[in-house]
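Repro case for the chain-ordering regression, as requested:
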Amino acid sequence: VSIVDNFARRNIANQLGAPSLTPITPLLERTKRWQELSGKRIPAYLTDICVDRAGLARLVGEHDAVVHFGEQRSAPYSMKGMKRREYTISNNLTGTTNLLNALLRHPRPLVHLGTAGVYGYSSQSVPEGWVRWNDEWRLHPMKPGSIYHASKCMDQILFDFYTRNDGLAITDLHQGVVWGTQTEQTGLHPDLINRFDYDGDYGTVLNRFLMQAAIGHPLTVHGTGGQTRAFIHIQDTVECVRLALENPAEWGQYRIYNQIAETQRVRDLAQKVASLVAEAQIDYLENPRKEAEENDLEMDNQGLQELGWDPITLDDRLMEEVTEIARMYSHRVVRNRIYCTSEW
Amino acid sequence: VSIVDNFARRNIANQLGAPSLTPITPLLERTKRWQELSGKRIPAYLTDICVDRAGLARLVGEHDAVVHFGEQRSAPYSMKGMKRREYTISNNLTGTTNLLNALLRHPRPLVHLGTAGVYGYSSQSVPEGWVRWNDEWRLHPMKPGSIYHASKCMDQILFDFYTRNDGLAITDLHQGVVWGTQTEQTGLHPDLINRFDYDGDYGTVLNRFLMQAAIGHPLTVHGTGGQTRAFIHIQDTVECVRLALENPAEWGQYRIYNQIAETQRVRDLAQKVASLVAEAQIDYLENPRKEAEENDLEMDNQGLQELGWDPITLDDRLMEEVTEIARMYSHRVVRNRIYCTSEW
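-- result from build under test --
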């Protein structure tokens, strides 16, 4: 395994003044620690795939498969003004195009991190990516809720074309909202811990509730909390990537999996967290996003289960997250980063 | 009316060594001649909308509406190697994003040139952009046949988002294959004539047949010629833009019109042209594109007709094009640019 990183996420955290709740050691410290513990070396290439096309193609040729996480991944950040809109579109699409072009030269299975948000949240029953349309398979009609989500819809259009026309083998993992912090591997040493983002831009809803509960801050629900969303534990996200790599798509296939463990209504989540912590209060705030106040959601997730995935549910691990991570690092919270300031 | 141009099309014609059949005078000569003839000045701003965000926003603010033609518009060119794929994606998407962001600052009706190719050619009956999906309107499922067509699908995703979320008013004209050379205005003086591209990258199928017939070259049909495509005369393309500007979309509306006059099968077109010219032969060549050999196509074009459009058909003007333009300039043909060299 090698890493390609341009440190965009660390730079943005600096710009926003919103550090991870958990302390993140420098990348080279992390890989060194991992080598001590596992005996395995992870080379890190510090380059930008939007710029260094030749370096990217060379690296692709030296490896057996590619996992593409290299995109600006926050919906609120993508909506913080025109520059961030443009950055999200150009960064995500140029990076994806350069990677696809590198794969034309050195065909390798690609696993990409998509989002369950490509479908929009008005359909009640969502298949895994494809629908029948006039006797052939087409991508499910899309309805992104932010520029970030739009960029992942646009990725889908490229993936569909490069598989149909050029015979690439691509798996898109349309992931739900991630919660949790540790995987088996990152739990081996404090130097290896994952980011825990709780700020209004990069914090996902459940991690935000966990942190808020840990510091005695009211849980911030946007609107009525009637939004139903899909969730997955971080340990499962790596499990699903492993399954997708070990069982790659066919050449010429654009395979889409919904990488979600369960769906939950946001206000129910807030109540679940509140019930684990003695004095937790819930604040219903004005919703900064343009979205339906209430929606139902059923999402097919058979594909990954057929590969052997047994999802972790909120009931399995929630208490552990509250007590082990959020409380342990609660002294690091920057309180004025908690509220969402990005409105759209 | 003002023009914003970075001369990308002229530069690419130079790169490819494929000049227009008709001689194209410098832009400032054209606008000067137009002013002499019409009394109207057309200021030209030589800038790149991918780069000059501030200049673009200022210009948008100084005008009543925007017509967006600023994209790399050739499917074969977009498939000529990795650099052209990347250029087409980044140029088209960055330009569109910058323009949409300028419109956030100065809301104006936008008319954009789309393509009938966003729908793919496997559906037999194509509506104007939107379909019912789970009780709401969604963009018709897309299936682009080239990177160029993919970029226009991706534009659609942005237009849908910026109208729904930001209240912009956008008309997308999903145009068929353009044929013909002159409009009423360009016919006023030889200095004003439009491009007539006949090369394998930028030449559209009917113009290629007309030029081939004029110089006694066999008409080059790709595959069986069973592809059914939608066509429109160049005079009508400006008529439709005028109608869309005079009857703008509502604020918050993403309005899609199919800007097509009629559908024709490619081999029928070849025969129609051959019948107008004594010794014209037809050559059936291997198809350089990955596409269905035969398809039927019916495409709704009610929207523009309801605004008053009365389409020009092939039967009205074909003879005139053959005799007036293709023959007049046939001495300018660069014969080794006739065949398509871009394969996908």
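Ordering looks correct now. The longest helix of chain A spans residues 82-105.
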